[in-house]
Amino acid sequence: MTGLIVDWRRLELHNWANLLEYYDEEQKRDGAPLDEFIMTSSIGQLSLRLQIVKALHAHFKLDVLLNTHDYYAQFLPAVQKEISQQRTVIEKELKDHVKIASWRDINVYALKLSAAKTHKQLNKCLKKYSMLLQQPLLPLISQKSDALFDDQRTAAIDAPTMELSTTVHFYPDA
Predict the structure, then answer these.
(1) Does the pLDDT of residue 124 top 60, yes or no?
(2) DSSP 3-state assignment of 42?
(3) 27 falls in which pLDDT band (50, 70, 90)?
(4) Which of 66-80, 110-124, 130-144 is the least confident region?
(5) Which of 6, 79, 98, 112 is 20 to 30 A from 158 in CA distance terms?
(6) Residue 42: beta bridge partners?
(7) Alpha helices in the chain (DSSP H)
(8) Which residue has the higher pLDDT, 135 or 106?
(9) Which H or E run contains 161?
(10) Distance separating alpha carbons of residues 43 and 83, to the nearest angstrom
(11) Region class of 61: left (phi > 0), else alpha (psi between -120 and 50), else beta
(12) Angle at which helices 46-60 and 63-73 pack, to 10 degrees?
């Protein structure tokens, strides 16, 4: 018995040396930095960052990577819809400016002024689009996540309930 205790103690002390390495590995596997990588994304970068996480999962085969990808991928359609809606507004504004712009002037000075004005309007539209793509992801995901949670809670409340029997059956021991 003493030999077994001594062996266990030796094994315990031997593994203490590896304890710091264990914690290092645990920190590397911690999902917080990965979550932060996605949450600090702009809405324009979400798709790319999800592709990066998916590629890392294919390389490292860590479930935390796949789980993170799958969780945030559910928000991608909503993000793409938001970008598409805002882009449509900006495209319409841009097309309206192009329609108004004159290019048939014979006067070089008038053409130069028209081109400068058109370029200024073009830059405004591009800046709006750039600002759209740089919007932080967190508010949009929080809003969609809350809506998803509310839908699930409503579905759970509206789900049919089963009646439980209050009859107690006693079975004699055989």
Answers:
(1) yes
(2) strand
(3) low
(4) 110-124
(5) 79
(6) 136
(7) 2-16, 19-29, 32-39, 46-60, 63-73, 76-100, 108-133, 137-158
(8) 135
(9) none
(10) 8
(11) left
(12) 160
Tell if the pTM clears 0.70, that is, is over it.
no
pLDDT of residue 42: 92
Q: Which residues of 47-72 are buried (b: 16+ CB within 10 A; e: fewer)?
A: eebbeebbebbeeeeeebbeebbeeb
> Cα dihedral sign for 137, 73, 35, 33?
negative
Cα-based distances in Å from 164 to 114, 155, 160: 78, 21, 13
Rounded CA-CA distance 47/20 in Å is 36
Query: For the chain, what is the mean pLDDT?
Result: 78
Residue given tokens 């702009």 in the structure block:
42
Q: Where are the domains of the chain?
A: 16-74, 80-137
- In angstroms, the CA 95 to CA 134 distance is 23
Phi, psi dihedral angles at 9 (to 5 degrees): -65, -40
3-class state of residue 138 by DSSP: helix
- Per-residue pLDDT, averaged over 45-70, amounts to 90
The tokens describing 13, both together, are: 């002390």
Tens-digit pLDDT profile for residues 87-123? 999 989 888 877 777 666 677 777 778 788 888 888 8
